[in-house]
Design brief:
Structural class: alpha+beta
Order of helices and strands: EEEEHEEEH
Shape: globular
Distance between the termini: 32 Å
Number of strands: 7
């Protein structure tokens, strides 16, 4: 079995949430920024790096929220969920997809990435 360790971060700024509209065909749609923890990298460092790469944002008040797991064939993905505040609203989209600030009710459920509703439950947003 292959185990992948990943992270995801819900980011707040001025009563809005930052969303990422992922382009990758393996998991497209609306989600939160995040990615894989690299070899010899701490989980916290990986969150800061992934958010910076995907959004251009610096974070403050980074805090652990929960864990979510997926089993796909022989692979297991363990994703550590975090929450933080952005230090500004100056965002830069990346090759991962477009990033934008919005209220949750402004994002149509039909645009969610697969299992995004399960992630929102972990964050107690639904």
């Amino acid at each position: 079995m292959i185990v992948e360790l990943t992270n995801m971060c819900l980011i707040h700024y001025d009563n809005k949430i930052l969303f990422l509209n992922r382009k990758k065909t393996s998991w497209p749609g609306i989600t939160f920024p995040g990615g894989h923890v690299e070899d010899n990298e701490s989980v916290y460092t990986s969150v800061i790096r992934e958010v910076k790469e995907e959004t251009g944002l610096e974070l403050e008040n980074l805090r652990f929220v929960d864990i979510i797991e997926w089993n796909v064939k022989e692979n297991r993905e363990i994703s550590l969920l975090f929450e933080a505040d952005a230090t500004s609203n100056k965002i830069i989209s990346s090759t991962e997809g477009e990033v934008f600030f919005a209220d949750l009710d402004e994002v149509g459920k039909e645009n969610y990435s697969q299992d995004f509703d399960l992630i929102l439950k972990k964050y107690k947003l639904i």
